[in-house]
């Protein structure tokens, strides 16, 4: 069911190879001497980065708002800094893309894309958005009323980064005893995993350490979940899936757990669910609610396709469709443009799970 892009999206897709060539030349013509130490690998990396730019640009085009592109650039600048890549190279690369798109898109198409690129360039010029960690400590990304002491989060982070599953287990169990499974998951695990992501981004830990931390925490969550108190079953059903190309399933798993603890009938499809299969599954199982997760703004067009596919097959009645995840951080206001019934930054903020 993977629908073909139309209009400006299709035009950008058709220009992709040319835009990558042009953008790479544009950068090397201007700061090639600074990039020389990376040799040929630098050019390959540069093309790959431009490819990502286009994907996130398409995410923004899909909703007619610069938000997904601006968020991405802000993250990218931090990442580049940790690799010692000159800060202005990101700005140059966006300018390079802008110069080729301005020339090759029609004036109507360019009018859709220009404000997004301009907002991106402007955000880079003003230094981007500060990361949560730069604001100090390991704070929950979504809620402010966490029961978990900052020192406890710090201890869990150190244990996970050291791969010390026994120490991590003691901390997670202690917090669950204190405040219950869901408050532990959102007040402790979510902010700690977010901080671990930032350490990876700054190259303070390796990919292997991040993978180990994820694997350990997933096991500990399962253990706490099976021992949590379950409500009696209720006649409500929810289907949860990460959209295609989203491999981040831990957050959605916690949402699935929250519904299960409330007595809902739950189907959790996990990461990277192909759009066509997802839509067909919704059509055959007819859940009351569909909950979708995306981790990157480049997945917004995929989310849009899933929602359109479900509506096309089942009309505008049930199921309700909601979405969340890091790919929508700060972008909840775009929910109507995506055809969604709700966008929520956290499990605790989903109204169906309220008291
Ligand atoms: C673990 C991890 C991975 C693991 C995921 C393993 C797994 N089985 O889930 C792996 C190794 C696969 C991975 C891969 C990548 N990752 Co990663 N990853 C993370 C990390 C460190 C933790 C994710 C996590 O589990 N968080 C804990 C959960 C509980 O939090 P959560 O996901 O935010 O979910 C909460 C809410 O968002 C919300 N929620 C989530 N979904 C939904 C849905 C609904 C309906 C609702 C209501 C709410 C909701 O509720 C949850 C509970 O509060 C994050 C850092 C971070 N900030 O989260 C980076 C992070 C998300 N990854 C990132 C990146 C860049 C990548 C890669 C591109 C890296 C690469 N070069 O390959 C790939 C992309 C893979 C893909 N295509 O999806 C970036 C994204 C940057 C950005 N802003 O765009 C982050 C932010 C790291 C960083 N700081 O740079 N990653």
From TrEMBL:
| Key words of the record | Bile pigment, Chromophore
Coiled coil is among the record's keywords: no
Q: Does the keyword Lyase apply?
A: no
**Chain ranges of the B12-binding domain:** 235-355
The record's annotation in Pfam families points to: B12-binding, B12-binding_2
What InterPro entries does this protein map onto?
Cbl-bd_cap, Cobalamin-bd, Cobalamin-bd_sf, Globin-like_sf, Meth_synthase_dom, Phycobilisome_asu/bsu_sf
Similarity section: Belongs to the phycobiliprotein family.
Full protein name = B12 binding domain protein
Q: Which organism is it from?
A: Thioalkalivibrio nitratireducens (strain DSM 14787 / UNIQEM 213 / ALEN2)
| Organismal lineage | Bacteria, Pseudomonadati, Pseudomonadota, Gammaproteobacteria, Chromatiales
